Amino acid sequence: MRGRTVLVTGGTGGIGRETARGLAALGARVVVVGRDAGRAAAAAREIGGEAFPADLTRLADLRRLVAEVSARRGGLDVLVNNFGVNPADRTLTEDGVETAFAANVLAPYVLTTGLLPALRAADGGARVVNLTGGLPDGPIDPTNLQGERRYRGWTFSHYNHTKTALMALSLALAERLAGSGVTVNVAYPGHAYTPGNRATPARAFPYVYRPLAPLIRLLGPVLLGDLAKAARSSVRLAGDPELGGVTGRYLNARGEWARWPASVLVEANREAVLALCERLAAGRGRRE
């Protein structure tokens, strides 16, 4: 990775920070993106990288970040879309987009498409790595992509829904960008006790899992505290030289190629997610 430039969103803590550390250790120049300017600067100093503060739920910040990164010389070799949120309640951003969809799906779309010229300018091809999470193997409901009809149920979680939608978006972008020199793949980190998870209240869980929340708080630091382990799949997709040119694939937490969820393989689902991202990115997102 020496001499290659990598941008990691949500790189101020948790799996994102471990991903940034891992890629810096491989010799990459790492750009850390975080909502908090002070934390982003501290994370960048630790690894000898750069910091770009941005709130990736805001279209204005996404567009500014695209402009600032695009102004750099030398292109962008790897984009790691790690940032994600799991709100306990359904809310809308200032752009009128449901918050989880804005962070977990729309932001990766806007950054990937906006930074395509910088990615195409990289020598030897470029990579986009999208991180899924939670339990991203359920159905995709094209009529509920922003939690309009259902946000949480006995086993349903809108967070999981958005992470599955991100996988559908990733495969759609991989198909669209085939032969362009830019690859798109998905990494699953598995379960980890991150700062984001620690801050998630019990009411954010599906109803059937809420009784487990206290147990996770108790055992999480012991059983799920190795964040470097959770970052292995994203570091591999971003930095393994043997994966150059590999696109449209899904790497699980064990570092093995996995089958896409059945819902991701439905073309109509991929088209629905892509079409919604295109519409929302154009600023046509005001809805209740």
From TrEMBL:
Sequence intervals crossing the membrane: none
InterPro entries registered for this protein in UniProt: NAD(P)-bd_dom_sf, SDR_fam
Any Pfam family hit: adh_short
Record keywords, A-Z: Oxidoreductase
Coiled-coil annotated spans: none
Gene3D superfamilies per the UniProt record, alphabetical: NAD(P)-binding Rossmann-like Domain
SUPFAM superfamilies xref list: NAD(P)-binding Rossmann-fold domains (SSF51735)
Protein name as catalogued: SDR family NAD(P)-dependent oxidoreductase
